[in-house]
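Entry for the shared binder. Reason: the reviewer on the internal report wants the predicted structure included alongside the sequence.
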Amino acid sequence: RTPWTFALATLPLGLSFASYYTGATSRIGDIVPLDRQGAMLGFLDSSRGLGGVLGPLLGGTIVSFAGYPAMFVTMAVIAAVACTIVFVGLGPSAASAQRAVDRSSTSPKD
């Protein structure tokens, strides 16, 4: 329980937040038309802020009524639903689709 332990424990959290933001903004650049990208980036940042407020509020409420295990289970279910929505709802980006077309047109035909 030293400051170094805390720093090592929070390092993966910081890396995941950085990766999330980079990936999300890249995805917006890939799939959103140029004239709407500013609005979508604003929506992304607003959603992050709202989640930063509502997440701890919801977690604290669950802990006070049902304890920590219930809070972790609830948050895991919410994360699983969000992941399912992302993986099912989003198709390939325009950039990855174009790369697939480029690969198929340059590969030798048998």
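Summary line for the report: The radius of gyration is 20 Å.
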